[in-house]
Write a structure and sequence with these properties.
Blueprint: E1 10-13, E2 19-21, E3 29-34, H1 41-52, H2 54-59, E4 62-68, H3 72-82, E5 88-90, H4 95-100, E6 103-108, E7 111-116, E8 119-123, E9 129-133, H5 143-153
Parallel strand pairs: 3-4, 4-5
Antiparallel strand pairs: 1-2, 3-8, 6-7, 8-9
């Protein structure tokens, strides 16, 4: 997906078994971020950064939604252990991840693999992508600050 594209209507099932749809968020902005694997160091740092700044992001009109290939039970455990208070979608079939364009070839430890490309989409009130943070741009420990810096200058 590119800037100007609408995100998919059906985003998936979250850690609590609730279906998450883009239309549930009409009138609100969304931070939709993909991450490779729950309870790994980088993904935990990124999620905790977003959780730590959740109130500030919400005051600016943003809701946070995470998505990975993890199973629902793994997402639930991750949310519980890290105190995450936002939906974590379990896209085990990678359907939405592929549609978003954050599933593909990557290089890890010198090996080429296929997997989730850590990506963040800032989505407007109509479900349209306004900004994409690519894997190379994202600094997991301070990702919420990166988003806030972008929001404050736009």
């Amino acid at each position: 997906m590119n800037i100007g594209d609408k995100i998919p209507e059906i985003l998936g099932i979250d850690q609590d078994g609730k279906q998450i749809k883009a239309s549930d968020y009409r009138g609100r902005k969304i931070i939709l971020y993909s991450y490779p694997k729950a309870n790994t160091s980088g993904c935990t740092a990124e999620a905790c950064s977003l959780q730590a700044h959740k109130q500030e992001l919400e005051s600016l009109g943003y809701s946070i939604i995470g998505i990975s290939k993890d199973k629902q039970a793994s997402q639930k455990k991750f949310a519980s252990e890290q105190g995450l208070e936002f939906p974590l979608i379990a896209d085990t079939e990678t359907t939405v991840l592929q549609e978003l364009g954050c599933w593909g070839e990557k290089v890890a430890c010198g090996h080429r693999t296929i997997g989730i490309l850590r990506t963040t989409y800032l989505v407007n009130e109509e479900g349209v992508i306004e900004k994409i943070f690519s894997p190379k741009e994202i600094k997991t420990k301070i990702h919420a600050e990166q988003i806030l810096d972008y929001i404050k200058v736009k």
